Amino acid sequence: NAGVTQTPKFQVLKTGQSMTLQCAQDMNHEYMSWYRQDPGMGLRLIHYSVGAGITDQGEVPNGYNVSRSTTEDFPLRLLSAAPSQTSVYFCATTGGYEQYFGPGTRLTVT
Amino acid sequence: KQEVTQIPAALSVPEGENLVLNCSFTDSAIYNLQWFRQDPGKGLTSLLLIQSSQREQTSGRLNASLDKSSGRSTLYIAASQPGDSATYLCAVRHQNSNSGYALNFGKGTSLLVTP
Asked: Is the Cβ of B55 closer than 8 Å to some Cβ of chain A?
């Protein structure tokens, strides 16, 4: 039982490049979400999903895209990377009470 | 919007001391409150979850309390150890959030326990 997994752990992109951050959970939870963590800002919600086929925007959705085709997977796509997207990205899931977080992806955009 | 504040931002104590970390939130209509631990460069580890109907939760040397009416929670760490050094995050889930089960996070308290 791996819980929440994220790949890659580290990534360096050039401005304008696109990429997908992967998130998978084996807890059979309907709700999944993506946060970014920046120094001095705390964690902020990017997008979330309440089930397969249903996604919605959080607090800071600009520049990101998500889809949810299965219960297990919730990828986050950066359409055209910008230096402002340099951050640590966390995926999370919950069955209704406690939230469980993945180990994070550290992304640098140059 | 729910604002979550953690005080102090940083704390350094000698090993063996008991300590209290504070968390306050502006909207008392919460569903639950969760305390996390984050080690440098790592993910978030859940420590304690308090439902809105509860006053406190305990796990080992950790005790978290919740006073919903005053918008406050405290995390009490007894007999601190160097291994407790980490950043502690407080997060609140709003009762009627329009973001599902999303959490509002404080900025954390960075704790250093010196031998």
From this structure: no
